[in-house]
Design goal:
Length: 365
């Protein structure tokens, strides 16, 4: 989180990444030219905000590459809850960088352990047809501590995923009588639904010492039923005996594969691997601290696909790190909600023009 110490290195990487995509991706080059931007205009870190943004919605409708897809190492997709999914490919360098990023981030949060654990996963059971980033990242999280077992709330049966919430309730009850720590991973929505049912049934457990709850993936199609973190964390304490300090949460996106892990005060501080810009929903101009707007995420990690600067459908606020009190000086991102597809179409840096193919019909194919 030493952003000042890494500022020049980050800027150099952004400039290099922008130039690479400009040279190797015809469609991206056309988008930049239409916006009147050239990589040579990146003269200092203050210029990063001038890079034209691509909304995540763009990647749900257009597959563009800077490295031939057959030459990439890994293919992932977004969850596709809106009906369409983005595909983001990883080159070898991005994968190696990503592994280092994850190791550094989760170790700082105290999530790496050599002590084996049982995993109860409020997410997808792995299947060869499931290439979603959230499924793969959740499975990867089962190696933060050596896995003795994995139980899934969403099991794959006859070509589709079926909720199996009774199964994970049974496992939680059974594992509470053992000595092995339990790690609960996955969607906060399913965690809430299960814990709420358990409390309504009068089930209150005490999981073994060292147990943790690690949430990621957001609320997706259950956004309308979303509850505050304090409500969910309170359920975890009452139903499972997991204290607030043992609850962690991740934020990421398929189109921006940087891992944001909350601090002990449950704030998403911005690591050195990325930069967050909050933009005015009407003018798209960068806003200062404490002002809500659309969340623009920047990272130079990937060369396979030009996801250098993407606009999410999240609305958020950036705060100065000192406001948190956890000891991390890097600014932190507070997520307020989602703008929705209609908001992104009208606000995200000419996204409507891009999706209408104004940068050229060749690029749209």
């Amino acid at each position: 989180y030493d952003r000042q110490g890494a500022e020049q290195m980050f800027f150099s990487a952004v400039r290099e990444n922008c130039a690479y995509h400009y040279r190797h991706c015809r469609e991206y080059r056309k988008i930049l030219k239409r916006s009147g931007f050239r990589p040579g205009q990146l003269e200092s870190s203050r210029d990063i905000g001038r890079i034209p943004v691509l909304p995540t919605l763009f990647f749900k409708h257009h597959a563009i590459y800077s490295i031939a897809p057959e030459c990439t190492w890994l293919k992932t997709t977004s969850s596709g809850t809106s009906g369409t999914a983005s595909q983001v490919n990883f080159d070898g360098g991005a994968l190696l960088c990503g592994l280092g990023m994850v190791a550094c981030t989760v170790s700082k949060r105290g999530l790496l352990s050599l002590r084996p654990a049982r995993y109860v996963i409020f997410g997808y059971e792995p299947h060869r047809d499931n290439r979603t980033a959230v499924a793969r990242s959740t499975f990867g999280a089962t190696f933060f501590a050596p896995p003795l077992s994995r139980d899934y709330a969403l099991t794959y049966r006859q070509g589709q995923y079926i909720p199996n919430l009774e199964h994970v309730m049974d496992r939680l009850c059974r594992y509470s009588h053992g000595a092995v720590p339990v790690r609960i991973l996955g969607f906060p929505s399913y965690a809430y639904f299960v814990l709420k049912q358990m409390e309504e049934r009068g089930i209150h457990l005490t999981l073994p010492g060292g147990s943790k709850m690690i949430l990621s993936g957001g609320w997706k199609q259950f956004e309308g039923q979303k509850v505050n973190k304090e409500v969910l964390y309170g359920l975890a304490r009452r139903v499972l005996g997991i204290e607030d300090k043992d609850v962690a949460e991740f934020f990421s996106a398929a189109e921006h594969p940087v891992l944001y892990c909350d601090c002990r005060n449950h704030h998403f501080h911005v690591p050195v691997y990325s930069q967050v810009i909050i933009r005015d929903i009407k003018t798209m101009e960068p806003l200062g601290y404490g002002r809500p707007g659309l969340v623009n995420l920047i990272t130079p990690m990937i060369k396979a696909v030009p996801v250098l600067s993407v606009m999410t459908d999240d609305v958020g606020v950036l705060h100065e790190g000192r406001e948190c009190g956890c000891g991390i000086d890097a600014p932190y991102l507070e997520l307020l909600g989602r703008a929705g597809v209609s908001g992104i179409k009208t606000c995200a840096a000419g996204a409507q023009d891009i999706l209408n193919g104004t940068y050229g019909k060749e690029a749209a194919r």
